[in-house]
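As a representative case, we now present a protein record of this kind.
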Amino acid sequence: MSAGVILIINAGSSSLKFSVFRLMDAESFMLVVRGQMEGLGTRPRLTARDAAGTKLVEREFAVSEARDARDAIRLAGAWLLEHIHDEDVIAVGHRVVHGGAHYAQPVLIDETVYAELERLIPLAPLHQPHNLAAIRAVREWQPQIPQVACFDTAFHRTHSQLADLYALPWEYYEAGVRRYGFHGLSYEYIASALPAIAPDVAHGRVIVAHLGNGASLCAINAGQSVDSTMGFSALDGIPMGTRPGALDPGVLLYLVAQRGMRAGELEQLLYKQSGLLGISGISNDMRTLLESTEPRARLAIDYFVHRIAKEIGALTAVLGGMDALVFTAGIGESSAEIRARIVAACAWVGVALDIDANRRGGPCISAAGSAVSAWVMPTNEELMIARHTLALVQSRGRGHDH
């Protein structure tokens, strides 16, 4: 296969993030460009930087020019082709939030696969339509380029049936009401990077804390996902920037029966108005809350730490013990204070903090002699998608589609 680049796309409701990786040899990549089209339909703007962080473009568009993913692909794509004019786009890899119970691996997208992913829209109504719109837009823009779907649920398909079950009538399980888990591309990357960074624990019992505006925990044993705090949707588990995490279903019954809330209002409440923002009344940004002296800001932080420590205890029980705790994503990688508070709350497991190492950001932040080691590892979902995309395109070139 000739050298070229792989385009990675992560499409949301009002933005489209993209990365371009250059294929250096059969297995390694170099980041060339990272950018996004944001403000689609309101205040569209294209920005991109090179691997060193140097700004390459910052261009605003009229609302009529950039309303949706289709327009974003066309405009960002035109700029990209101009920027990398001498290199072939080998393939496009997409982050697709939901792969359902069927997809345990990334897959080359054809009409059949696309139709199956459309049927999963009810399981991820806020994310899946935008992921699919980007796939459709790339097909219109450059129909000859192969596209690969990489799923945020796929890494968790190694769960036992027990871990994915809800105690509802069996017909609902068969209809797809089960625990899927999310952030799988992040966890898969961490599992793949652990052997080089922490070889002593990489094949043991590891709990990874993906802490960002969206947040979850994953129990990994011998490199495979055993359980996760997220379930049927990305609302479950630990509190997040604007999502509540685990919630008694009786609360929802009360909101519908006593407060007269409709489905759309519940969706707004649960996805946009809860979590750190809901408790603090100030912000969903942990940095803002840590700087604030407001009592409710402190309460939101305390609740965040409390719920994470509680879930780490539950996942430790599932694993039968813990060998390592890994922090990743925005808060996990950046906030020494949050890491310190979580480790302190988990002292009973046998993890002790090295204060200076934690302040420096790791990678190892546990004290010498700590029975359980603690780590800080940057995640790289885009690189994970690039690896999967290349592997599938190469396998197709050898005549193996599956």
Summary: The chain has 15 helices and 13 strands. The chain has two domains: 5-151, 200-381. The mean pLDDT is 92. Residues 5-151 form a domain with the Nucleotidyltransferase; domain 5 fold (CATH 3.30.420.40).
